[in-house]
Design a protein that fits this description.
single chain, 343 residues, alpha/beta, Spore Coat Polysaccharide Biosynthesis Protein SpsA, Chain A, 2 domains, nine-stranded mixed β-sheet, 11 helices, 9 strands
Length: 343
């Protein structure tokens, strides 16, 4: 570790929710053990795992006292992270999923950026890795990556400015004080909980910095929520996301940034309520459409969903949906899929 560049030896709390992660969690914890910055505590929240995950966690806790276990009944990733937040003692806090991998200098470089920029939040880039990849995919840098300042992280994300800011929670390190009294909502059922939590942080307009270098290997797991079949929980979560984010940012200035964020979320809600039921659960699509039609009309009436924020084609599709022209909607989506797949 480049100690001459570090101002102090502050404790960093790492919160790792674990649910049936026996295939990967040992590699994840090894990537924590191999950090060049050593003053960390890892809070391992076993979220009611039914496989051998808890046994693996206990072996690591016996090997290194910096690993601390919370064993609880299954309550979902949001509740697990909240339990970890309540126990975290560090001046800084970060999150790590139980199947992802840190590069060896993740904590060192992130804390360096935090301190040199006097930032509240620092984010970095990440690289995808295959489900079968191990620790060997990581890099060790023989130089200090370039650090940049971000004046408005909400705008950076909402307007898709470069360098890319994400709504992920695990590609960032936070000053503990910026997360004070901020908890993950349990309403999201393992979908969109990162997004909601990030917006709560962005609403504080924290001083931010970034490292435009990959420091994390993100494992593309076939069991992740993003790869699962469409469900009512998934649709409900994204509708809640739109409403909650707009309410969180109700008094945020400048309002143009809020509008930009709304323009990002509305097409997501459009897909979950209109096109995903057709493409992902074809046989039940009309059941989904019928269930969400009054909800979508209420979103429009209350000003959360603005149709003019969709593209012209999306507006045409959504108009068919809202007017219950579902036979024509099916035909149009079928033709769209046919043309798209020929490209």
């Amino acid at each position: 570790m480049s100690e001459k560049n570090m101002k102090n030896n502050d404790l960093i709390s790492v919160i790792i929710p674990v649910y049936n992660a026996e295939r990967f969690v040992a590699q994840t914890l090894d990537s924590v053990l191999e950090q060049t910055y050593e003053n960390w505590e890892a809070i391992l929240v076993n979220d009611g795992s039914t496989d051998n995950s808890l046994d693996i966690l206990q072996k690591y806790a016996q090997k290194d006292a910096r690993f601390k276990i919370i064993d609880k009944k299954n309550g979902g990733v949001s509740a697990a992270r909240n339990d970890g937040l309540k126990k975290a003692a560090g001046e800084y806090i970060t999150f790590l999923d139980a199947d992802d991998l840190w590069y060896p200098q993740f904590l060192e470089f992130m804390l360096q950026a935090m301190q040199t920029q006097n930032a509240d939040v620092v984010w970095c880039q990440y690289e995808d890795c295959r489900e079968t990849d191990g620790l060997g995919v990581r890099k060790f840098y023989d130089y200090i990556p370039q650090i940049g300042e971000c004046l408005n992280i909400l705008r950076q994300f909402a307007m898709r400015l470069k360098p890319k800011a994400t709504i992920l929670v695990w590609d960032k390190v936070y000053k503990a004080k910026i997360l004070d009294k901020l908890f993950f909502s349990n309403d999201y059922k393992n979908m969109a909980e990162d997004y909601n939590y990030a917006v709560k942080i962005f609403a504080k307009n924290p001083k931010s910095a970034f490292i435009n270098t990959p420091l994390i290997a993100y494992r593309q797991s076939s069991n992740s929520a993003s790869h699962q079949k469409l469900s009512y929980n998934a649709v409900d979560s994204h509708i809640s996301l739109l409403v909650d984010c707009m309410n969180i940012l109700q008094s945020y200035e400048p309002h143009e940034d809020v509008v930009s964020l709304q323009k990002r979320i509305i097409p997501v809600v459009y897909r979950y309520t209109c096109t995903y039921p057709y493409f992902r659960v074809y046989k039940e699509c009309e059941e989904y459409w019928a269930h969400y039609l009054p909800i979508c009309k209420k979103l429009i009436e209350d000003g959360y969903f603005k149709i003019n924020m969709l593209s012209p084609f999306q507006r045409f599709i959504y108009d068919l949906y809202l007017k219950k022209h579902w036979k024509l909607l099916r035909y149009t989506l079928a033709m769209y899929s046919l043309v798209k797949n020929k490209k």
